[in-house]
């Protein structure tokens, strides 16, 4: 009986250590991937609630072709520059960890905004475009109850990589995907970068703060 008791205690200790390590990662996310000059674009850093890091960034976005989940080929970023505030993230449909959490947060975000949701353009861009066809993205969007203001985009692998790199959100491959959400009040304005996991209430607060500023 004694060896079995020791083994169970050791297992519980290892499980607790793993849980604490996971909390540490999500509450203190790595801000920049190796090789990215993150400070070159950073305007200022603001204190944020525990769980994510908030910075304000300026990005030079490439003019390239993407495909919406309805199968329409469009120019990016012109397609999101329609005057509405933008909330943007990167996902892929076969992801089983980070992406479902990000998409669930956006789904709850749109519900919490109520009728105001028509005034925001929600954008999710696939980082696995070779697998994520427009039809797959449309199914994924339905899974999370995406409204007409929430568009999912795919395209060529090269286009996806360019967009990820423009947002300094490329971490080598999809298995190294990290949670990050971007908000912009209007075309030509800087982006708020939220690194880590926000709650829906966090995201609503950040969004309302952004759209009422200035």
Description:
This protein is of the alpha+beta class and 214 residues long. The chain folds into 2 domains: 1-30; 32-212, 3-Layer(aba) Sandwich (Glutaredoxin), CATH 3.40.30.10. Helix content is 37%, strand content 22%. The chain contains 6 helices and 9 strands. The protein has helices at 2-27, 38-41, 98-113, 134-143, 157-166, 200-212, and strands spanning 42-46, 52-57, 64-68, 73-76, 86-91, 121-126, 150-154, 180-184, 191-196. The chain has a 9-stranded mixed β-sheet, with helices on both faces. Helix 3 crosses helix 6 (200-212). It starts with a helix and ends with a helix. The model is unreliable at 1-49 (pLDDT under 50).
Number of helices: 6
Distance between the termini: 68 Å
Going by CATH, the homologous superfamily of the largest domain would be: Glutaredoxin
Helix proportion: 25-40%
Please outline what is shown here.
With 214 residues, the protein is α+β, with helices and mostly antiparallel strands. The chain contains six helices and nine strands, in the order H-H-E-E-E-E-E-H-E-H-E-H-E-E-H. Helix 3 crosses helix 6.
Attribute tags:
alpha+beta; Glutaredoxin; disordered N terminus; 9 strands; globular
Topology (SSEs and partners):
Layout: H1 2-27, H2 38-41, E1 42-46, E2 52-57, E3 64-68, E4 73-76, E5 86-91, H3 98-113, E6 121-126, H4 134-143, E7 150-154, H5 157-166, E8 180-184, E9 191-196, H6 200-212
Parallel strand pairs: 5-6, 6-7
Antiparallel strand pairs: 1-2, 2-9, 3-4, 3-7, 5-8, 8-9
Helix pairs in contact: 3-6
């Amino acid at each position: 009986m004694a060896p079995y008791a020791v083994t169970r205690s050791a297992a519980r200790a290892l499980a607790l250590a793993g849980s604490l390590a996971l909390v540490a990662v999500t509450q203190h996310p790595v801000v920049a991937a190796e090789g990215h000059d993150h400070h070159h674009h950073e305007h200022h850093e603001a204190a944020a609630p525990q769980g994510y890091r908030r910075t304000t960034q300026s990005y030079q976005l490439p003019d390239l072709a993407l495909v919406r989940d309805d199968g329409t080929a469009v120019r990016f970023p012109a397609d999101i520059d329609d005057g509405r505030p933008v909330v943007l993230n990167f996902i892929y449909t076969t992801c089983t960890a980070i992406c479902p959490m990000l998409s669930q947060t956006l789904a709850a975000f749109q519900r919490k905004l109520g009728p105001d949701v028509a005034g925001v353009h929600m954008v999710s861009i696939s980082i696995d475009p070779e697998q994520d066809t427009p039809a797959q993205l449309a199914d994924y969007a339905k899974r999370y109850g995406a409204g007409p203001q929430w568009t999912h985009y795919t395209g060529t692998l090269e286009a996806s990589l360019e967009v990820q790199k423009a947002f300094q959100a490329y971490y080598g491959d999809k298995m190294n995907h990290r949670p990050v959400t971007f908000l912009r009040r209007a075309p030509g304005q800087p982006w708020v970068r939220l690194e880590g996991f926000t709650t829906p209430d966090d995201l609503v607060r950040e969004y309302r703060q952004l759209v009422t500023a200035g």
